Amino acid sequence: MFWGRIGIVVLLCQGMMSIGHTQEVLVRELLERIEALEQQLSVVTGRLEALEFQQENAGVLPEKTDQEVEVAADETPQKEDLIAQILLEDPETLYTETLKQIQYGSLDQAQLRLGLFVGQFPDHERMPDILYFQGLVARALKDEAGAAGFFLEGLERYPQTALGPAYFLELAESLFVLGEFREVCSVVIQYRSDYPMAGKLQMRRMERLAEKASCSP
Question: Which of 1, 23, 83, 94 could form a disulfide with 89 if both were Cys (CB 3.0 to 4.6 A apart)?
């Protein structure tokens, strides 16, 4: 159960404190990849935020006509056929097409592809990115508990990858939405310790969360 896993955050944070000075060297290298990913992530994240806004204001949008619904149904392949097609794709093609689905706003398709990627290529070098996008898509689909689960899994499996700081930040965001303020503060403390040179934007977001959760300075 997800709620039972929340306690892992504290244990995870405590365990990571032992990395010490060695991690300071690693952080510099890890953050380089984050900078390389920032443009791609910002595009996808921006698209997801736009979709969330559209969903929240769906009531003011005009309903589709019967003809439009019929056309959409005709153009949508059967799920079984779609899965069969996806399973033929190589990892990079699957990854690239998944990001396109996110940008097109096809979140259900993106979620399906992300899950198939995990099932087909569980040890692929893209897995840290896949878990991160699974979290973002789950959030856009209003599944904050699921999003937190993906970000936590990313921290558990890939704590020293370039996405480590992003996992921390997004996990704290999810925990705040879920009302787990004490856990938010635990994540904030460890983030400050492990990533003192994190990007200014990330650091500002984390500090705003800390303030809203009434964490100690």
Answer: 94
Task: Look up the pTM and report it.
Answer: 0.66
Whether 33 and 125 have beta carbons less than 8 Å apart is answered as no
**58-83: buried (b, 16+ CB within 10 Å) or exposed (e) per residue?**
eeeeeeeeeeeeeeeeeeeeeeeeee
Instruction: Spell out the domains of the chain, with CATH numbers in brackets.
Output: 7-53+77-212 (1.25.40.10)
**Judging by beta carbons within 10 Å of its beta carbon (0-12, 13-18, 19+), is residue 211 exposed, middle or buried?**
exposed
- Residue 98 neighbours by CB under 8 Å, 6+ apart: 110, 113, 114, 117, 133
Using an 8 Å Cβ cutoff, are 144 and 174 in contact?
yes
pLDDT per residue as tens digits for the range 120-129: 999 999 999 9
Give the tokens for residue 30.
Answer: 């890890």
Single-letter amino acid code for the residue at 141: L
Token reading at 34 = 């984050």
